[in-house]
Amino acid sequence: MQAQDQVSVEFSSAPPPITQLKYFYQDAGWNASDEFIAQTIPFKPHPILETVWVCLAVGGTPVGMARVYLPPPVASNPPAFIGDVVISQSSRGKGLGSLLLGKIEEYCKKRGILLLAIESGAQSHAFWAHHGFSLKPPIPQVLFKNIG
Ligand SMILES: CC(C)(COP(=O)(O)OP(=O)(O)OC[C@H]1O[C@@H](n2cnc3c(N)ncnc32)[C@H](O)[C@@H]1OP(=O)(O)O)[C@@H](O)C(=O)NCCC(=O)NCCS
Q: Which atom of ligand 1 is nearest to the CA of 87?
């Protein structure tokens, strides 16, 4: 990455273009079939959550994405769920994944959210642990981070 490359992180209720989503899913090694992409765009773990799509671009080119499911502002302080975090292979290892997570944390904090959660396979636990997330037994596969 060159010093002049400007990094931007944008949050939107609108999903990215399908071709872009397919590109990131393919790049991450996930199911990127047309059927799965069509199903995953409207998916929410619970209907009460609000979906926010995050796009990270370098010099105007999207190289990273994530999805955040925001909870309603209720007294029990439920977590925001993070999903679909991808930095394209050619842009990995340059701190962009950390930058993306930092922006998501900032965005959630501003909305009064005190807890983040991510469902992750064992192969990615090290990445999340590196960023302050930890398992809360007996809940399997979901890592949490207090940001309050
Ligand atoms: C996981 C991913 C988003 C990391 O993006 P990245 O831009 O390469 O990450 P960064 O360069 O910001 O790395 C931040 C730190 O995490 C570490 N890290 C990165 N990937 C890691 C992994 N898979 N396991 C453990 N640590 C990891 C880096 O070594 C770095 O450590 P440092 O700060 O001590 O140097 C990227 O590898 C990716 O898109 N993977 C495929 C999709 C995926 O698995 N997503 C996560 C599950 S939803």
A: 39
